[in-house]
Structure formats: C-alpha cells, structure tokens
Design brief:
- The longest helix is centred in the first third of the chain and has 30 residues, at 2-31.
- The chain is of the alpha+beta class.
- The chain starts with a helix and ends in a 7-residue tail after the last strand.
- It has helices spanning 2-31, 39-64, 78-88, 90-95, 116-140, 193-203; strands at 74-77, 99-101, 111-114, 147-153, 158-163, 207-210, 223-227.
- The protein has a five-stranded mixed β-sheet. A two-stranded antiparallel ribbon has the order 1-3.
- It has six helices and seven strands.
C-alpha cells in the first residue's frame, strides 16, 4: 500500500508538471501570428496546437482521478465532463474513423454533486472499451463504419453508451463485471475495467450495467448504461 501510494504521488507530480508545460506551450503557440509564417510552418503550428489541446484534456481528466480529488465532492456538469472525455479521445477516434453521435451533442447542462474524478473514470473506461471493440469489428467486417452513440436522459438521469461493435453474448452479461474476466486476447486486457467502474459507481450511489436489449445486433447486447438516479442534483 505504501509503495502504491508513493507511485500515485509521483504520477500526480508528473501530471501537474505536464499540465503546466502544455498550457504554457499552447499559450506560446497562440501568440504566434499565422499570417506572418510560411504556409508549411502555419500548418505545423495548427497541428501542434490541436495535439496539445487533446493532450491537455487527457491530463485534466487524469488529474481529476488523483488521490486528493477522488476524495472531494463538488458540483459539476455531467454533459460537460462527458464531452471533455470524448474530446480527450478525439485523436484516437479520428484516426480510426469512429463517429460519435447521440443526444449528448445537443444536451442541456445537467448538474450533480459527486466526485468528478470517479465519474470521469467510469466514462473513460466505457469510451475505451467501445473504441477497442469497434476497431476489432472493423478488422472482420468489410465496409464497416465504426460508431459510438451517447444518449443523455436527464429525466431518467441516465447516460447510455452504444457502440456498433460485436456486442456481448447475453449469457455473459453479468460475468463481464467480475474481476479478471475479459473477452480481449491475452496481453490486451486485464478484466478489471468494468469491475472497477461498477465499484466506483456504487461508491457514489450510481449503477453501471449492460442494457439487456438488442440495440444493434440480433442476439447481442451493445449498450452500457450509467444510472445517476441515486445521486440527487444540488
């Protein structure tokens, strides 16, 4: 435990410095006047700025999961944090042709009081899983167009993440939430992501579950739901 605590502190220090460096570099790049640069240099500056913006969002999400912030509840906008988590993976999504759609794109603000880092951890795990499985589907299905649909229901207080990957066999719908259970090949998954996500959710009075409906593929389940109804808005 002491060893893990030490590693955690080292990571937090590194993230703090990385955040400071990326913010400073972005500020420097934004001070440049593209009209005074050769076209190739101006294009390179734009690419660097976009990459640093993505990196900075990833760092912000990781910092929110730090040991101190994971113990502190605060008021936050659910929609804003999900959009931030998606933006942090935009480079990955773009490289793999993954389209993100759903009611999230036009959702109104939805504020709750909880630990933001725990919420981000759940969302990021679902995004990572969706990205992995649609990429696997693209390897075996000709003409496949990977898609992730994120729907927000503020009345039911739920978030639904649906990907058009291979989906989950109904017979393993509950098993996948057990520790060290994974459908990924050896070396590509430890089988802890969904287990930790569910445990983190329970800590906040939420639930994470697989929607027992055939939303994309016959005989398969493709949607995960975060239910925040156990957490009342401030």
């Amino acid at each position: 435990l002491v060893y893990l605590a030490g590693v955690g502190l080292m990571v937090e220090v590194a993230l703090h410095e990385l955040d400071r460096a990326t913010v400073g570099t972005l500020r420097t790049l934004k001070d440049l006047d593209p009209s005074r640069l050769p076209p190739e240099a101006a294009a390179a500056v734009r690419v660097l700025s976009d990459q640093l913006e993505t990196l900075n969002k990833r760092v912000a999400n990781l910092e929110a999961m730090g040991t101190v912030r994971r113990q502190t509840k605060s008021e936050f906008d659910v929609v804003e944090l999900v959009n931030r988590a998606v933006a942090a993976r935009q480079g990955e999504f773009s490289r793999n042709g993954i389209v993100v759609d759903g009611t999230l794109l036009a959702a109104a603000p939805w504020r709750v009081r909880a630990v933001p880092g725990m919420f981000i951890q759940i969302v990021d795990n679902l995004l990572a899983n969706a990205s992995y499985w649609v990429r696997q589907q693209a390897l075996v299905e000709t003409g496949f167009r990977p898609r992730l649909t994120i729907d927000v229901d503020t009345r039911a207080r739920t978030l639904t993440f649906t990907d058009n990957g291979p989906g989950v066999d109904p017979s393993t719908a509950e098993e996948i939430f057990q520790p060290f259970v994974t459908r990924k090949p050896a070396g590509e998954g430890r089988g802890l992501g969904l287990y930790i996500s569910r445990e983190v959710a329970l800590n906040q009075g939420w639930t994470v579950d697989l929607l027992r409906e055939e939303t994309i593929r016959p005989g398969r389940y493709n949607s995960f739901v975060i239910d925040l109804s156990g957490n009342t808005a401030p």
